């Protein structure tokens, strides 16, 4: 199949458009090739010329682009300010995503899809920030698990509350919760927070 053929491009565009609509409207277990073929005005055989399964399509349309977007920014875990920056970047990106991405993050039926995205992002970051936390491997595993899970949990609650909290207030609250949680486990982070607190107190006197 010629990937640059105009008919191929049009068919793939129709498949992706129909798929995005389905994700926004249906639960994960309702995503079927038959439903997609009907919406994209193609037959099932045509779908299988392009993708082997719905999961492969999900990877192409959602997972790979999202992972690329989040791993495209170099991040550091060297300081508590770096952690705050990562949280701000995550929340800012999450709040700018389309309805499709909000569904992937927030709808329970898509939780396994989001976990695939999150795991690939965190595996990439751990590989590129080895030793940054200065912890033994078991403690590091726990800290990264904490860091990986809390930002999406906070975001989901913000969405569930109707996004009523002003965005900047939500981001600042999230940063405070995450950085202080990380500081509990990483001595260097706690020292930096203590130093920031001392500087703030001195400037207010």
Automatic annotation (TrEMBL):
SUPFAM superfamilies named among the record's database cross-references: Homeodomain-like (SSF46689)
PROSITE patterns according to UniProt: HTH_TETR_2
GO molecular function: DNA binding
Top-level taxonomic group: Bacteria
DNA-binding region extent: 32-51
Matching Gene3D superfamilies: Tetracycline Repressor, domain 2
Organism: Bifidobacterium saguini DSM 23967
Pfam families in the cross-refs: TetR_N
Residue ranges constituting the HTH tetR-type domain according to the UniProt record: 9-69
PANTHER family per the UniProt record, alphabetical: ACREF/ENVCD OPERON REPRESSOR-RELATED (PTHR43479), TETR-FAMILY TRANSCRIPTIONAL REGULATOR (PTHR43479:SF7)
InterPro entries, per database record: Homeodomain-like_sf, HTH-type_Tx_Regulator, HTH_TetR
Record keywords: DNA-binding
Protein name as it appears in the record: Regulatory protein, TetR family
């Amino acid at each position: 199949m010629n990937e640059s053929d105009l008919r191929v491009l049009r068919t793939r565009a129709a498949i992706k458009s129909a798929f995005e609509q389905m994700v926004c409207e249906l639960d994960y277990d309702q995503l079927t090739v038959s439903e997609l073929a009907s919406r994209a005005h193609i037959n099932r055989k045509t779908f299988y010329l392009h993708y082997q399964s719905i999961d492969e399509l999900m990877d192409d349309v959602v997972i790979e682009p999202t992972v690329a977007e989040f791993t495209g920014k170099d991040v550091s875990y060297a300081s508590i300010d770096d952690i705050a920056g990562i949280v701000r970047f995550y929340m800012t990106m999450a709040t700018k995503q389309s309805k499709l991405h909000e569904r992937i993050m927030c709808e329970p039926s898509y939780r396994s899809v989001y976990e695939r995205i999150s795991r690939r992002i965190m595996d990439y970051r751990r590989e590129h920030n080895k030793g940054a936390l200065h912890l033994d491997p078991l403690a590091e595993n726990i800290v990264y698990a904490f860091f990986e899970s809390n930002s999406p949990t906070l975001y989901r609650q913000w969405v569930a509350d109707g996004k009523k909290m002003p965005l900047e207030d939500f981001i600042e609250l999230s940063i405070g919760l995450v950085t202080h949680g990380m500081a509990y486990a990483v001595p260097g982070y706690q020292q930096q927070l203590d130093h920031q607190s001392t500087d703030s107190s001195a400037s207010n006197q």
